[in-house]
Amino acid sequence: MNNTLSQIIEILYLTPENSVFTQKGDFVALTTVQNGEKKDHGIVKLRRLFPFEELWNDITVMDASGEEIGVIASIDCFKEMADILKNELERVYFTPKISKIYAMKDKYGFSTWDVETDIGRVTFSVKDTFRSIVSLGGGRAIITDVDGSRYEIVDASKLDKSSYKKVELYL
Amino acid sequence: MNLNKAERVLLEREGLSEEEIVSRVVTDMNAQATFEKGSLVLTRKGIYAISGENSLKASVFYRLSDYDSFAIDELLSTCRFYAVKDGERTVVTYSTFFAKEDLYRLASDTVKLREDRISEISDEEAQRFCPKCGRRYPDRDRAFCPNCMEKGKIIKRMMGFFSKYKLYMLAIVVSMLSLSAISVIAPYFSSQFFYDEVLNVKGEYYGELVFVLVLIVLMRIVRLILTIIHDAVTSLISAKIVYDIKKTIFAAIERLSMGYFTARTTGGLMNQISHDANRIYWFFTDGMPYFTINLVQLVAVTVIMLLYNPLLTLLALGFTPLVLYLIGKLFRKSRKLNHKRYTRSRSMNSLLSDLLSGIRIVKTFSREKSEAERFSKSSRALADSEMRRSKFGSTAYPLVNTLVYLGTIAVWAFGGWMAIKGSFGMTYGILTLFISYVGMVYSPLYSFVDMVEWGSDCLNSMNRLFEVMDAEADVTEKENAISLDSVKGDIVFDNVEFSYTKSRRVINKVSFSVEAGKTLGIVGHTGSGKSTLANLLIRLYDCDEGRITVDGVDVRDLSFDTLRRNIAIVSQETYLFVGTIYDNIRYANHDATREEVIEAAKAAGAHDFIVKLPDAYSTMVGFGHKDLSGGERQRISIARTLLRNPKILILDEATAAMDTQTERRIQTTLDSLSKGRTTLTIAHRLSTLKNADSLIVVSGGAVTEQGTHAELLAKKGEYHKLYTLQLEALKNVGVTE
Question: How far, in Å, CA of B187 to CA of B68, rounded?
Answer without folding.
Answer: 87
